[in-house]
Design goal:
This protein has 187 residues and is of the alpha+beta class. The protein is 29% helix and 29% strand. The strands form 2 sheets. The protein has a 5-stranded antiparallel beta sheet with strand order 3-5-6-7-4. A two-stranded antiparallel sheet has the order 1-2. Strand 6 and strand 7 form a beta hairpin. The longest helix is centred in the last third of the chain and has 34 residues. The protein starts with a strand and ends with a helix.
């Protein structure tokens, strides 16, 4: 199991479905993490640092990807990040990760973040991020990823949207490599 920081409500999380409280009810390709926002997470105004939010988004996405393929996973890409509304000290931050697309060698995970007031239980959406993970084997070799079959109509739609984002990322990588090669030949 992995130990998380003292600010986390879930202090110990196991990657095994049978040992992770309530995870037997999680849909396939899903993980969540709950974090209590503490002083070490915040700036002097009481807002949670964006870097703290990014770290926990990445962690929850990693947990989702790792649960899916049961292999060592690494982050390959983080699509743009918008901070819609701040999170504050003494709020609960809910990180909900859902596998949205799987190619032969990568997984796209959507992580949605919500902040909840401990005093009146109001909850608001703060962030959504799409991350890409790869599974690694011995010597850092990228492994094939097990297939993912979305079950609900919403998950099927998200899967098709994920396929489109995957294709756009591949095209943009090609454009970036081409631009870099052109720039290097000029300089």
């Amino acid at each position: 199991s992995t130990q998380s920081t003292w600010g986390d409500v879930i202090l110990t999380m196991s990657l095994s479905n049978s040992n992770c409280s309530g995870s037997e009810n999680w849909p396939p390709g899903y993980a969540e993490h709950v974090h209590l926002c503490v002083p070490s997470d915040a700036n002097t105004s009481g807002n949670v640092h964006g870097g703290t939010t990014l770290r926990l988004i990445e962690f929850t996405g990693w947990l989702c990807a790792t649960r899916h393929c049961r292999a060592r996973c690494v982050t390959a890409n983080l699509d743009n990040m918008d901070f819609h509304t701040p999170m504050y000290l003494n709020e609960l931050a809910f990180f909900q990760a859902q596998l949205t697309f799987v190619s032969e060698r990568s997984m796209e995970v959507k992580v949605e973040v919500y902040a909840e007031s401990l005093t009146d239980s109001t909850r608001r959406h703060t962030n959504t991020a799409y991350l890409t993970y790869c599974a690694l084997g011995d010597g850092g070799k990228v492994l094939s990823v097990p297939p993912f079959v979305p079950e609900s109509d919403a998950a099927k739609l998200e899967f098709e949207e994920g396929r489109k984002r995957h294709e756009l990322r591949k095209k943009s990588r090609g454009v970036m490599l081409s631009a870099l090669t052109s720039w290097e030949s000029v300089s």
